[in-house]
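Notebook entry, structure prediction.
Reason for the run: the old model in the group folder had no record of what sequence produced it. Starting over properly, with the input documented here first.
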Amino acid sequence: MKRPNVVFILTDDQGAWALNCAGTPEIHTPNLDRIAQRGMRFDNFFCVSPVSSPARASLLTGDIPSSHGVHDWIRSGNLDREKFEDVGRQNPYFGGYDDEDKPIRYLGGKTTYTDVLAQNGYTCALSGKWHLGDSIQPQHGFKYWYTIGKGGCYYYYPDIVEDGNIIIENGYVTDLITDKALDFLDDLTVQDNPFYLSVHYTAPHSPWEAEHHPDEFIEMYKDCEFESIPNVPDHKDMATGPVYGTQKRRENLIGYFAAVTAMDYNVGRILDKLEKIGILDDTIIIFSSDNGMNMGHHGIWGKGNGTFPMNMYDTSVKVPFLISYPSLIPKGSVCSDMVSAYDFFPTLMDLLGIKTDAIKDLPGRSFYKSLLGESRDSDDSSIVVFDEYGPVRMIRSRHFKYIHRYPYGPNEFYDLVKDPDENNNCIDDPNYRTEILEMRKKLEKWFAEYADPEIDGTREGVTGLGQLCRAGVHSEKLVKYAQR
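New structure, fully documented this time:
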């Protein structure tokens, strides 16, 4: 019996709150709501790290950053600067590839779930963002490869990688990614093999100025007051400064919401295509984002590196997660189980009925039972999730959250029942002394078990300004970049 097809739609910097069906009434997401209505929405799904590349690496490998070694967004290692320098300078929105040197396969030697899918007969295709090093050559089981040279890009005139070359496209990148995904579907559905299609949008990542998005979507929000979005002073540790600060609140939110709705429109094109060719019900549709996003929440305009030191607010670490497969997953259901992106690899294997040793030493646990509408664990209080971003680590239960910053702090502790918006740091409250000590002990024990001491993020000097080379490679290459 043929296994189901899989379409995984992944966005960039979309908070769990940035869906109409998740309770933000101003935002127009009819097609994302359509996926939720056809299946299940998770309201406690956590990324592994609140920044792009580490989060994406963890989704693919099931590993944590301190095991796979991607600790920050990939700033260098995407392509060969010398080979593509002239192409890069053709782009009207940026001045080339000055941060680049030679391509680095940051996940080289690691097994990803796409490797396992390819080994089990799936034809794997990528349309959209990769941002895990060496953007030019297909990796990890992908046969079809259409991505972005630098990893991220502006919405117009993106640097598109196809067939080993880079061209500057004259188009809106959200539309271009969808167009290629639809072309893939036309090619893939004529085969006997099941297919896996990654559609990785850059939306709704900045820039958010009106000129970067189609007028029709900007116009939808020109009179919006964004009443459901917090309007508070800038966070004292905000790293993005005046570029995205509160003084640009309306412009930021109009552009962000427009980017989401433009992406949602294109999701509708994919769903309609699957329906038209008669395979929508035979295809598992998954929708998520790499990391969360603060759009004024806590006075931050960014994710984990929207502040320095980096933050672990729920708005940074919670992401949307929708999944539909009508023959198995209850329609219109909402799951409140606490699950993490490091649980995704084993869950997908269970969902597709694939047995593999690749998951046996990973930290994640399958939430397949949750997809059936059953509780994943009878003792829900025992479930905790972990996050990391370089020297910043988090452990979170339903009731409490503890954040430890190595080596000197400041550390944080929140009672999420009394303070769900994380406004009151109780780290010095003697009433929580026992809980704080217990959570720190669990945190350190877990990372001691799963982190590789050679590339442990607490020792890598991660600042939120991007990763230049492989973890464990220091002084010489970093000095070289600093001198440019």
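Summary: The longest helix spans residues 249-276.
The old model has been moved to the deprecated folder.
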